[in-house]
Sequence to fold (184 residues):
Amino acid sequence: MNKRVIAKWAGLAGVGLLLAACGNNDAEIKAMAKKMHMSKQQAAAFQTCAKDMKSRKPIFIDGDKAVQLTKVPLEICACHAPAVAQMFKDDKLTGHARFAAYIGKVKRKELKMGRRDLRTAMAPEKAGQILIASFRKCASDFAATAAAAENYPKLIVPFDLPKPKPKKKKEGEDGEGEQHASAE
Fold:
């Protein structure tokens, strides 16, 4: 019985060490923020962006065409952090999670940020547009670099948008309903 308990705890400890090794990248984020001379607010925005975008695959839609990022490298979030820090109040960076969820959806309406979360008195729709434009510019700028081509060969890939479902006609819309009524 004792050997089983020891083996169980040793296995759990091994799994814990593996998870700790794969854990978050806070040290890398802090080092990159320090290297880029980010302010405290920008560093917090950078860390929030990295956390929110870690498992997301953002989609950029232009009319009927779209592209998708297969991964969001830290360099993109570092570029996007000043816009996030400028947009949101220091204690309201949770609003970025709404942006992260929005940018990963295929079917979406206009992004509206919460007025209470925003630092300035701008319209919530305009704030959403600014965040999307900033993130898109940072992604395209990074994708054009040699480091991106070397480390992330397929960073931006084409994305097929779902085809809109044809709308069903109601009985009265096609004119047949009137003909049947007059025949009787």
Q: What stands out?
A: The two ends are 88 Å apart (CA to CA). The chain has a mean pLDDT of 80. The longest helix spans residues 2-22. The beta strands are 59-62, 65-69, 156-159.
